[in-house]
Design goal:
The longest helix is centred in the first third of the chain and has 24 residues. Helices cover about 40% and strands about 25% of the residues. By secondary structure, the protein is α/β, with parallel strands linked by helices. A hairpin with a 2-residue loop joins strand 8 and strand 9. Strands 3, 4, 5, 6, 11, 12 and 13 form a 7-stranded mixed β-sheet that branches. The chain has 11 helices and 13 strands.
Length: about 300
């Protein structure tokens, strides 16, 4: 087969998908092929190049040094081709499917009011919003954008800051009538303190007591997997909770929740970021439009 008969860009795209999705089966689904066809394509590519690109195992794919170099160059070439096609067309169109992964609190209190506006601006865009407080792998979840707090763990991710919020310890008036109002860390330790069931960067609640910064531990008796569940338990009078200020603003204004130990609040803040995978090439127009919209409209 001559070089002119080889669909090199097609081979590159399938190879890149197999690497990014972690296997031939996932790549086959994404490319509309069978797993055996993907496997044969990669084998044929390796034979043509005269180099082994991937070490296969039953559990995962591992790139060889030659495979790493070919992957990086393929990503750049495919991005350049996509950009050339966009420029050659009548113009970039904001259209297509966007999958967003975010926490329930941010999704309900910040993102949801903005969704109708964004979809009104871009009627050819379809959104899927997945709520979870768990830190996810964007490639595994096939998410275009994740909205998260804290530092990035992967160098392949790029973050755009959306804003920051302070945290507050709160409880319902009914709970405080039944159990009393704690006025010190020692008194707070005798109360039901609702915690998260997953590992966090900082375990416990920081409080400033005199000149000291202390950590108030949470109990193991009542734990939840997300901030919205914690908020609803606090509203129901199940205990005291530490929540983002934007998530409880309406509850505080309506008197459904009241601040607790606010004079001991150290004033720490959480920064929120829109996180996406960066491969060195241009982003799809639909993802760029979403990132710009969030940057301009998110208010925490």
């Amino acid at each position: 087969m001559s070089r002119q008969d080889v669909n090199r860009s097609g081979e590159m795209e399938v190879f890149v998908r197999a690497v990014e999705l972690g296997g031939f089966t996932a790549a086959a689904t994404a490319c509309g092929m069978t797993p055996s066809a993907v496997s044969k394509l990669v084998t044929r590519l390796e034979k043509r190049l005269g180099a082994r690109l991937i070490n296969r195992s039953t559990r995962r794919l591992q790139l060889t040094p030659e495979g790493c170099g070919f992957y990086e160059r393929s990503v750049t070439i495919l991005a350049d081709m996509a950009e050339a096609e966009r420029h050659a067309s009548a113009g970039e169109q904001v259209a297509g499917y966007i999958r967003i992964n975010t926490s329930g609190s941010f999704g309900n209190h910040v993102l949801a009011p903005l969704v109708p506006i964004f979809m009104g601006l871009y009627p050819k865009v379809s959104l899927e919003i997945v709520h979870t407080d768990r830190i996810v792998d964007l490639m595994e979840e096939r998410a275009d954008v994740a909205i998260r707090t804290g530092p990035l763990k992967s160098s392949s991710l790029i973050a755009r800051k959306l804003g920051a919020t302070r945290n507050m310890i709160v409880a319902s008036p009914d709970y405080l009538r039944r159990h009393g109002i704690p006025n010190s860390p020692a008194e707070a330790e005798r109360h039901s303190r609702i915690g998260f069931s997953y590992s966090r960067a900082q375990e416990g609640w920081p409080v400033k007591f005199g000149d000291r910064l202390m950590t108030l531990p949470v109990t193991r008796r009542l734990q939840v997997s997300d901030g919205e569940a914690m908020r609803h338990l606090a509203l129901a009078g199940a205990g005291i909770a530490r929540l983002a200020a934007f998530a409880i603003k309406a509850d505080l204004e309506a008197g459904r929740l009241v601040p607790v130990l606010e004079e001991l609040n150290p004033g720490d803040i959480e920064e929120f970021y829109a996180v996406y995978i960066g491969q060195g090439g241009p982003l799809p127009a639909r993802v760029r439009a979403l990132l710009e919209f969030l940057s301009e409209n998110v208010r925490l």
